[in-house]
Design brief:
single chain, 116 residues, mainly alpha
Length: 116
């Protein structure tokens, strides 16, 4: 599944996906996302995330991540952003922890395309 996303589109998709981990986007999460991305871009990516199934979401993230060949330090920055969105409301609940673990399997410094 090819997305042809740039880095910003991938990050926006991941963060919006994470903000929906507990099934709704809090005011704090929305404020963070709209301060991080333009409002129009945020709404465009939100619509895409909401229209995708859970399976498609994870496939899109994995494929786009693998396409970009991120280094460890770049992956660390993605995780920082994910951590920010998960803890913005002061909690890191079980649904968020579950998604963190799933993303941990999806986002790896060495893309699966390079693993023999």
């Amino acid at each position: 599944m090819s997305t042809n996303w740039n880095d910003e589109e991938l990050l926006a998709y991941i963060l919006i996906y994470c903000s929906l981990a507990d099934l709704s986007i809090s005011e704090g999460e929305q404020a963070y996302l709209t301060s991080r991305f333009t409002k129009d871009f945020y709404h465009k990516m939100l619509s895409e995330v909401e229209n995708d199934s859970e399976e498609v979401r994870q496939l899109k993230i994995k494929d786009a991540y693998d396409d970009h060949l991120y280094r460890n330090d770049e992956t660390d920055l993605i995780y920082e952003e994910i951590h920010n969105i998960f803890t913005i409301d002061g909690e890191f609940d079980q649904l968020e922890k579950n998604l963190w673990n799933q993303l941990d399997q999806i986002l790896s410094p060495k893309p699966s395309a390079l693993v023999s």
